[in-house]
Amino acid sequence: MSKETLIECKEVTRIYKKGTQEIRPLSGLNLRIQAGEFLALMGPSGSGKTTLLNIIAGIDAPSEGQLIFKGNDISNLNRRKLTQFRSENIGYIFQLYHLVPVLTAYENVELPLLTHSMTAKQRHERVAKALELAHIADRADHYPRQLSGGQEQRVAIARALVTDPPLIVADEPTGDLDKQSAEAILILLKRLCHELNKTVVMVTHDPQAAEMADRTLHLEKGVLNLEDQHVAS
Ligand SMILES: Nc1ncnc2c1ncn2[C@@H]1O[C@H](COP(=O)(O)OP(=O)(O)O)[C@@H](O)[C@H]1O
Ligand SMILES: [Mg+2]
Question: pTM for this structure?
């Protein structure tokens, strides 16, 4: 595993204001993620897992503190720069897949490439390769409703991979799947990490899913359990 740091959270705090009430899902959180590692994030419901994942993925910004990605501070990028950052660096996988129902598997995977400049031929090659990597090429012409949950998640993984981003984030990617499909998805995520050198950050409730990762961190009320930080790697 490469020892290069991909992401660093420095004293990251997230505050949501609701009227006079303040919710603070993350509070002075410090975390370093290495390039090429498969990291699992666990913690009870409401402990700030999704909030942290969204900040790591540039979907949300910290209220205080910094998010350093490949040495660059992305916490204060404007909206346009942040969108560009995401489209170049992040693939996102959701619990409920979030495929567009009126598009085929192929078209869903093609979607993130439409903002990238390339020829139609290059685009086709990229989509075909991503579908193959996710073992779902045989369903390219199917619509989401014609696919099982496990197959939909494979399409979603192909969509996350198609732009070749260094970081894949997954929010409870197996939360809606039966045991067997879940295991296949986890094996796939692990392969992306170890064979394609992607960094994978996965939120999960499932201890068995977390076991597939190189390292597991536990979030508790917006901070990381310090004991976990000394995992040998
Ligand atoms: N957009 C938001 N506005 C206000 N509160 C939020 C928002 N997003 C999350 N929260 C609150 O922040 C806390 C952490 O939420 P979340 O990160 O989704 O937890 P988890 O993913 O661990 O279940 C919860 O109390 C939640 O209600
Ligand atoms: Mg969540």
Answer: 0.92
